[in-house]
DNA sequence: TGATGGAGTTCCTTTAGGGAACCCTAAACG
DNA sequence: CGTTTAGGGTTCCCTAAAGGAACTCCATCA
C-alpha cells in the first residue's frame, strides 16, 4: 500500500494522524498506559503481528511518544510514555467517551472511569482552556493561523 | 481478512478506530465540517484517490457518521454530518490541540480557534462531565464496566 | 445532438498488514 | 562447560488495500 504522507500537511489533524493514525497505534498507547509495557505483553494482549508491533513501536519512539528503555542487565526493554505521549491519552479518552456513547450497545461500556477529583463514575467533556466553558465544534470560529498553508 | 477487525473488540478505542481509524477519514470529517461537502470538492481539496474517497464515504455513511443526500434534481449528492458525526469532531479538536502544541514547530499552528463564549483564541481541554474539573489520564481510576470482555 | 460536469467505477501497480518460522543474546540450569 | 529458556525482535511469503489514471453513467444545457 503506497500511502500518502500526512506529516507535511498544514493541518494538525493530519500531523497527529501521522503519529498515531496507523492501525494499532492507539491501542498500543492504551496498553502502555494501563501497564502492558513490554514487547511480549503487548503482542499477547493485542494479538498483533510481531512485525507490525515492531514497526509501530519504532514509529512511536521516533515521534517521541514512547521511550524505549532497558529494565534488566539482559537485553530487555520496556516502553514508557513520554510527556508527549501522556498528553496523547487525551485523544484516546475522547474516543472512549464517543465509543461508549454510540457503540457500546446493550452491553454497556467495557470500562468505567472514576474521576479522582469528585469520586464519580464519569467521562470527559471538552472545555475551553481559556474560560472553562464548554467548547465544541459549533462553539468556535476558525481563523487562519501563522502556520497556515501558503 | 487481512486487516484485523477492530469493531468487535471490547474496547471503545478500538471501536472508534473502526469508524474513523482508516487513513483519510478524520480529514474527510474535517472537510465536511468546514464546508467541503461534495465528492468533487473533497477529492480536489484532499488530493485523495477517488477510489479511496468512495470507500471512505460509504463507510462513514454506513457507520451513521455522515448522511448522503441529494442537493439537486440531477443525481448530485452532498455529505452532511449526523449527530454522531458532529460529536466525533470532539476527537478532532483534541487532535488539533495536541498537534498544535507538539508538532506545529516554528511556523505555529495552521489554524486558530476563537471561542464564541469568551471571544478568545483558545483550544480545548478535558474536563469531567460530572464535576467540571480537569480530567486527564492520571486523574482517573479504570474499573471494569458492564460490557467488559468475558 | 453534442457537450458539460458531478459522481462515481475499473483496472493495474505498489506496498503494508497477517502470520508463522526463524534468529540472537544473556542469564540460568545441570 | 554445554544446553535450555525467554525476551525481543527479524525474515519470508501471501493477501488485501492505497495510488492513480482512465473510463462510465446520466441528467441537463447550449
Automatic annotation (TrEMBL), chains A, B:
A Pfam cross-reference name: HxlR
Domain HTH hxlR-type intervals: 11-107
GO molecular function: DNA binding
Taxonomy, superkingdom: Bacteria
Keyword set, alphabetical order: DNA-binding, Transcription, Transcription regulation
PANTHER family documented for this protein: TRANSCRIPTIONAL REGULATOR, MARR FAMILY, TRANSCRIPTIONAL REGULATORY PROTEIN
Designated name of the protein: Transcriptional regulator
UniProt organism field: Kribbella soli
